[in-house]
Amino acid sequence: MARLRLYDTLTRETREFEPRAPGIARVYLCGPTTYDAPHVGHARSALAPDVLVRRLRRHGYQVTYVRNVTDVDDKILARARERGEAPLELSARMAGVYQEQMRALGCLDPEVEPRVSQHLPEIVALVSALIAQGHAYELEMPGGTHDVYFAVRSFAGYGRLSRRKLDDLVAGARVERDDSKRDPLDFALWKGAGRDEWGWESPWGWGRPGWHIECSAMSEKHLGFGFDIHAGGMDLVFPHHENEIAQSEAAHPGCGAMASYWLHNGFVNVDKEKMAKSLGNFVTVSDVLERNDPEALRAFLLGVQYRGPVQFDTEKLADGRVVFPGVDEAERRVDYLYAAERRLRDAFGGAMTVPAKLPPELLATRDAVSAAAKAGDEALDDDLNTPVALASLGEIARLGNELADLAWKRRKDAGFVGAASVVARSAHVALRRLADDLGLLRAPAEEYAARTRQRRLSRRGLREADVAARVLARDEARRQRDFTASDRLRDELSAAGVTLRDGPLGTEWSLEP
RNA sequence: GGCGAGGUAGCCAAGCGGUUAGGCAACGGUUUGCAAAACCGUCACACGCCGGUUCGAAUCCGGUCCUCGCCUCCA
C-alpha cells in the first residue's frame, strides 16, 4: 500500500504522513461552538477528518480522534439569555444535535468529545503556567475584574501558520486599539466577569476562559503535547490556530511543534459567498435531511476535495419550498451505487460451477475492477482526493452492472455464469471496501431503498399501499396485453413521481429524489 | 492596505509538464410491446486574458482581469 500524503498548512506542502509514534495517529479537530444547530459547513468540517481517520485506520494506525465541543462562549451566553435558558443547558442540547447529525452523516464517533466546561482546571493550570513563564499577564479591568492576556511578542513563532507579520497586523485597520493591553495584538486567555455572571473561580477571580485556550488545554489533556494532526475550517487558521500554537508551544519550550500536520477544509458557499451564521445564508443539516438522505449529503460534500470550496446551490420552487439540486443529483448517484451493489451481491447467488479459467472478457472486467480499486485507493492517499475516489467507486459499479448485464444475456451458459459470479464476488468486495473508505453504502441496500422510498412518498403525499395497488393494476392490464390501459396507468403514476421498471422478475417501482 | 484561495466544455468537478478523469444535463444506439433501469456512443483536441520558458503547458515563469476568503464571531 502506498503512503498517505497530506497537505500541511504550516509548511504549505504535501508530504508523507509520518506518525510521531510508530503505528499510532493522534488527531484533533476543532469542533463547533454549540449555540445553534449545525449547518452544512459544520458537516463538511467533520467529514474531512472522518475520511482522514478512516484512511489512517486503513493504513493500520491505531487512531485517537478527539473532536471538541466549545460549550463556553459569549455567543452561547447571548443566545441562552434570549431563550431564557441556562447557557450550559443550551450548549449541551446543541452539542447533542451536532453529535447525532454527524453520526447520521456517517462520521465515526471520536474517541473523546471534550467540552470546555469540563476542563476548567486544565485551562487554569495552562494559563498559570503561561503567566509564570512570562508569556501572559494579568490586567485589572475598569469594573474591578481581572483579565489575562497572552503577550504575542513574547512568542517568536507568532504568525508562522498564517504567514502574517506582527507589524502588518497592527497596521490592519481592524485591530482595535486598546491601551490597557501591552500590545494591541495580545489576546485574552481569561476574561473576568461579575459574580452574578456565568463563570468559574480562578486565581484571577471569577470569569470565563478566552476563546483559544480551550483547544490548547483539551488537546494536551487527551492527546498530550505534540500530536500528529490538527484539523479545522480554513477560517480558524487565523487567529484561532495561530493562537493555539502560541499558547501551547510557549508553555512547552524546547518541546517542538504542537502538531505535525495542520489540515484546513474549505468553505461551503451559497451563491459564491461563504455559508456563515453571521451572514444569515446558512442551510442547516436538518434542512437538508428533511429532503435528502444523509448519504446523499455526504456524497455531495465528498464530491469536492476537502480544501476547495463547495458550491451549495439552493433553488426555490413555485410552491415556496427550497430544494438542493446538487444534493438531489448526489442522491441519484447514491441510488445508482446501492443498486449496483445489490446487483453484485444478489445476482449471482446459488451454487455455480467455477471454471478453471476465466473467459477473456471476464478477465478484462476483473482487471478493470482491480485498476479502479487501486485508483480509488491511491486517490485517497493523495491528500484525501475523494472526488477521484468517488469516480473510481462509480467505475466499479459500472463494471458490476456490465457484468450483470452480460451474465443475464448468457444466462443459459452455466459455465459463463459461474465464471461471472467469481468476478462479481471480487468486484463486490472492491466496491464495499472503497465505499467503506468513503463512509458510503453504510446500510443494507434494502434498508436504504426502504428509507428513501418512505421519505420520497411522504414528500409527495403518497401512500405506499396506494402506489403498490396502482402498480399492480397496471401490471394486470399489461399481462392481458392491454397496453393502452397499462400505459395510461403508467403515465398517471409517472405524473405522481413514480417510475416503473418492468423486469424479468416483475415490475419494480421507485421515486425520484 | 497585508496575507491567502480560485477562475477547466451547458452545469458540477479531477488533473498541476507529454497517454480519455468522472458525474449531471442534452442527443443517438443496444435492450424493451412501448418505456424505465442498465450498458455503449456523441457533446469534449475545454482549461480567464496577454506574453515567455520548453521538442511539448490547463499544468512552469512574468504581467493582467475577475471571483472569493482571512485580517472582528465564524467549520
Describe this structure in a few short sentences:
With 513 residues, this protein is of the alpha/beta class.
Summarize the helices and strands and which ones pair or pack.
Layout: E1 5-8, E2 13-16, E3 24-29, H1 40-58, E4 62-67, H2 74-83, H3 87-104, H4 120-132, E5 136-140, E6 146-150, H5 166-171, E7 187-192, E8 207-209, H6 213-223, E9 227-233, H7 237-251, E10 259-265, E11 268-270, E12 273-274, H8 285-291, H9 294-302, E13 310-311, E14 315-316, E15 322-323, H10 325-346, H11 360-381, H12 386-409, H13 414-438, H14 445-460, H15 464-479, H16 483-495, E16 498-503, E17 506-511
Parallel strand pairs: 3-4, 3-9, 9-10, 11-13
Antiparallel strand pairs: 1-2, 5-6, 6-7, 7-8, 11-12, 14-15, 16-17
Helix pairs in contact: 2-3, 4-6, 6-7, 9-10, 10-12, 10-14, 11-12, 11-13, 12-13, 15-16
The structure holds one RNA strand of 75 nucleotides.
Describe the structure.
By secondary structure, the protein is an alpha/beta fold. The chain has 3 domains: 5-291, Rossmann fold; 326-438, Isoleucyl-tRNA Synthetase, Domain 1 (Orthogonal Bundle); 462-511. It is built from 16 helices and 17 strands. The strands form 6 sheets. A 4-stranded parallel β-sheet has the order 4-3-9-10, with helices on both faces. It has a 4-stranded antiparallel β-sheet with strand order 5-6-7-8, with helices on one face. Strands 12-11-13 form a 3-stranded mixed β-sheet, with helices on one face. Helix 1 links the parallel strand 3 and strand 4 (62-67). Helix 10 (325-346) packs across helix 12 (386-409) and helix 11 runs antiparallel to helix 12 (386-409). The longest helix is centred in the C-terminal third of the chain and has 25 residues, at 414-438. The two termini are 38 Å apart. The relative contact order is 0.10. It binds one RNA strand of 75 nucleotides through helix 1, helix 5, helix 7, strand 12 and helix 10.
